[in-house]
Design goal:
The structure holds two protein chains of two kinds.
Chain A: H1 2-7, H2 10-45, H3 50-58, H4 62-77, H5 88-125, H6 130-139, H7 141-157
Chain B: E1 2-9, H1 13-23, E2 27-28, H2 44-67, E3 82-84, H3 86-131, E4 148-155, H4 161-171, E5 178-185, E6 188-196, H5 200-210, H6 223-250, H7 255-277, E7 279-280, E8 284-291, H8 296-306, E9 309-315, H9 333-340, H10 351-366, H11 369-386, H12 390-413, H13 420-429, H14 435-438, H15 450-478, H16 482-507, H17 510-530, H18 538-547, H19 551-560, H20 563-582, H21 589-630, E10 648-650
Parallel strand pairs in B: 3-10
Antiparallel strand pairs in B: 1-8, 1-9, 2-8, 4-6, 5-6, 7-8
The chains are: A mainly alpha, B alpha+beta.
Chain lengths: ~160, ~650
């Protein structure tokens, strides 16, 4: 068993794909969930705010997407959906790369979710605050983006690495 | 912007105000300070009547909506206000009284329904109380007879015949009694007790010590009969409510009339509100207002046509409202600008720049030729079919321009519904081609050339930031704040250019690198020398050195543009994922049905998610990265005195 597991890097690559998708998705799910609860509170009072609430609710959702894309690109590269079976070192490289968006996406998802809840409360008080709330909430996202780009750059360059 | 004063005769007031409201040329301004020779006319009472009518109709419409929901199409939110002939207004006005009556009727009927259901609750409570006494065949308030005292009521515990007699005997052995238990349940026993009249007080004492209570609302009717009556009443109330409901539903076809009349009252309320702001003498009245410079002539003509009046224009002060005027290309971006803040008098109107970068960045993030084309066509159809109002039309136009940009970026990235053409071709022929093989022009694949694209993104970011700083430079020059223009903005701009040259040099030649480094160092020295200029003594040096720390801000601004790559990639990869899922079911009939379903749903999801992301992030790049460089905001928008209606608009006379 142990020998098969380490014969090539497939196992590590798949753990990496799972971690990227699951951790980032966890962050987004929690963020969007909290924001959705807050926005439903607002909507119960005034259902005409639905469009604006939807935007604010969906903002913490991008982390999950980034994680999913990294996971998907790993699958594309490592022989599940195409590409060549990775070596052990390459598999470990995928695993390492996925941690950036996994952890970065998860924590920024939590943080952005909390910001979105406050943004929802703010726009509920006054419609005109909406764009300010929206921009403030996106400020959090840059960190998920940076994590995503690091993961991405590693994942797409691994097949070409001679390790 | 100009200040305008219109003086006219009081008898022309109605006509003049109506024309001003229709034409939406001026914004009414409160007179600077009230002068003794003018008086205000108080029309508050009239305004109140109109506003009450507006509220009444709002209520009526809401009630109509609860009982017979208005059928609306999914896209009706785009629809503009209905156009109405100016002549029709007269007809609306003459019908207004009748419509108010209809609305009152609707509100009354609704109140009746509410009252009925409140009454029903009361009746049901009485019924629940009577339920305990349903076997009793004498009235609840049966009085004592000649020789017997009668007690009807409840005890707060559960007893049966023997336990109750024991209890009563234990309390007072002398008492003679006879009782009947009507109903016994948890914590409650309903009893009828008879005692000799001579022992009435004794019986009362005994019962009191057991916690006896008479029923809350004793009646002279036998409970069974009473219950029967209550049931009948309940039914009657039900029927009455049903009838009222039907009457309301029958009035649902008056909905259009109500809406139109509501607008009529809304417009009139606005007009009378303006009268409050006017200055009057016995024969003339004065309108104060703001008017955009280019409309002065139009106003002059309009006034000449309507009534004899005298106009006076003067330059507006600093607190004048701002009206943005842009060409067709930039106008849609005005909404984005005013969402942030209207420009102050010092600001330039950045709408054209904003528009260009908005379309450009949105396209780069959404980057799919198929989606772009879809946006352009769909919005084109909506614009044609629904004829939306100004604001909505501008919003839609914004996305249409974004769609064009999206289309071209899609072509550059080689993405048409992701890799749909290639993936479908592969599915049906079994070959394995990529988008690169299909498209005759060289493409830039964000997945393969991510690093390249990141550099390009940041380069665009640099241009964006430099344009923003250029605006600041221009604004400072215009206000003759030269030190600020050259030292605070110019040096930084040069420094950023120096870094850019340095970056290019790293990739190409040593000489270019040295030139870049030279520029950057020179600028840094310049900054150290100039940035502490407002401070004293030693602070001058510290201030200069500290200002260099701002470079971290510029670096984080520039890195922020890497989202152009990230979001562009997201759209492409998501589309690719759905294409892959769709082609997993093979080429059988069933497979093709699944394929079409997955493609439709998948791409719809992708469009929804990524269009939202692109919109939000483009906006952020404008607001945070660019506007922070130069834009002050804080002005007030020009809000002309106009027809602020919800459902109708007056057709313009040609």
């Amino acid at each position: 068993m142990a020998i098969i597991m380490f014969e090539n890097g497939m196992f590590f690559a798949l753990v990496g794909a799972s971690l990227a998708t699951a951790l980032a998705g966890f962050g987004s799910a929690k963020g969007v969930g909290g924001a959705a609860q807050a926005s439903m509170g607002v909507l119960s009072e005034d259902s005409s705010m639905f469009g604006k609430m939807l935007v604010l609710t969906l903002l913490p959702g991008t982390q999950g997407l980034y994680g999913f894309i990294v996971g998907f690109l790993i699958l594309v590269n490592c022989g599940v959906l195409g590409g060549a079976v990775p070596t052990v070192a390459q598999g470990l490289a995928y695993l390492g790369a996925s941690l950036a968006i996994g952890i970065g996406g998860m924590v920024s998802g939590f943080a952005q979710g909390r910001a979105a809840v406050s943004g929802i409360a703010m726009s509920a008080k006054d419609d005109r605050n909406f764009s300010k709330a929206m921009v403030s909430v996106t400020l959090v996202e840059i960190y998920a983006l940076l994590a995503f780009i690091v993961s991405l750059l590693v994942v797409i360059s691994v097949p070409a690495l001679g390790i | 912007m100009k200040k305008v004063r219109i003086v006219a005769l009081r008898e022309d007031r109605k006509a003049l105000l109506e024309h001003l409201q229709d034409s939406a040329l001026i914004q009414i301004r409160k007179p600077d300070k009230s002068e003794k020779r003018f008086s205000n006319e108080n029309v508050g009472a009239k305004v109140q009547v109109f506003e009450r009518n507006v509220t009444l109709m709002e209520q009526a419409l809401k009630i109509l909506d609860t009982y017979s929901r208005e059928k609306k199409g999914m896209l009706s939110a785009f629809a503009g206000r209905r156009e109405v002939d100016p002549d029709e207004i007269g007809a609306i006005a003459s019908k207004a009284g009748e419509v108010v009556k209809v609305c009152n009727a609707i509100v009354d009927l609704n109140k009746q329904i509410a009252d009925n259901s409140a009454e029903q609750v009361r009746v049901k409570t009485s019924l629940a109380q009577l339920e305990l006494w349903k076997n009793l065949d004498i009235p609840l308030n049966t009085a004592d007879t000649k020789s017997t005292a009668v007690f009807i009521g409840t005890l707060p515990a559960m007893y049966n015949d023997s336990s109750l007699s024991e209890k009563l005997a234990a309390e007072n052995p002398k008492l003679e009694f006879e009782f009947e238990i009507q109903q016994a349940e948890n914590n409650m026993t309903c009893i009828v007790l008879f005692a000799p009249l001579s022992q009435k007080t004794m019986a009362e004492d005994v019962l009191r010590s057991l916690g006896f209570a008479r029923p809350m609302s004793p009646t002279h009717k036998i409970p069974k009969v009473k219950a029967q009556r209550l049931w009948e009443k309940l039914e009657k109330l039900d029927k009455n409510s049903e009838e009222a409901k039907e009457k309301i539903i029958a009035l649902a076809d008056r909905r259009e009339d109500i809406k139109v009349t509501q607008d009529y009252f809304r417009i009139r309320a606005d007009k009378y509100n303006v009268i409050n702001e006017l200055e009057h003498t016995r024969h003339v009245f004065v309108i104060n207002g703001y008017i955009p410079e280019e409309d002065c002539e139009k106003l002059q003509k309009l006034c000449d046509r309507v009534a004899p009046c005298w106009l006076e224009f003067e330059d507006a002060g600093d607190d004048a409202p701002v009206k943005l005027k842009n060409n067709r290309f930039a106008r849609p971006a005005e909404n984005i600008l005013t969402m942030y803040a209207a420009p102050s008098r010092e600001d330039i109107d950045p709408s054209p720049l904003l528009a260009f970068f908005f379309y450009f960045f949105f396209g780069m993030m959404f980057s799919d030729a198929g989606y772009g084309l879809l946006m352009v066509v769909a919005i084109g159809i909506v614009l044609k079919v629904f004829k939306p109002d100004e604001r909505m039309r501008n919003n839609l136009k914004l996305f249409q321009y974004c769609g064009i940009s999206t289309f071209f970026w899609g072509l550059i990235f080689g993405s048409i519904f992701g890799d749909a053409p290639a993936s479908l071709y592969n599915l049906f022929t079994g070959s394995s081609i990529t988008m690169k093989d299909i498209l005759p022009w060289p493409t830039l694949d964000p997945q393969k050339d991510a690093l390249m694209l990141m550099v390009i993104s940041i380069a665009f970011g640099l241009v964006h930031i430099l344009v923003g700083m250029g605006c600041k430079f221009y604004v400072c020059l215009r206000q003759k704040r030269y030190a600020e223009a050259f030292f605070d903005t110019g040096l930084w701009m040069l420094m950023l250019v120096g870094f850019a040259v340095l970056g290019v040099g790293m990739a190409t030649s040593h000489t270019v690198l040295m030139i870049g480094a030279g520029i950057a160092i020179a600028c840094a020295v310049g900054l150290v020398l100039t940035q502490g200029r407002s401070k004293k003594g030693f602070g001058k040096v510290i201030g200069g050195l500290a200002s260099l720390y701002d470079v971290t801000g510029y670096i984080s601004d520039l890195l922020s543009y890497s989202r152009l790559l990230a979001l562009g990639l997201t759209t492409g990869v998501m589309a690719q994922v759905f294409n892959m899922l769709a082609s997993m079911f093979g080429t059988s009939w069933l497979g093709i049905i699944f394929m079409v379903l997955i493609l439709l749903i998948g791409h719809a999801i992708n469009i929804g998610l990524n269009a939202l992301g692109s919109y939000v992030h483009t906006m952020r790049l404008q607001y945070v990265e660019m506007f922070s460089k130069f834009y002050e905001g804080g002005g007030t928008e020009f809000e002309p005195f106009s027809l602020k209606s919800k459902y109708i608009k007056i057709k313009e006379e040609k």
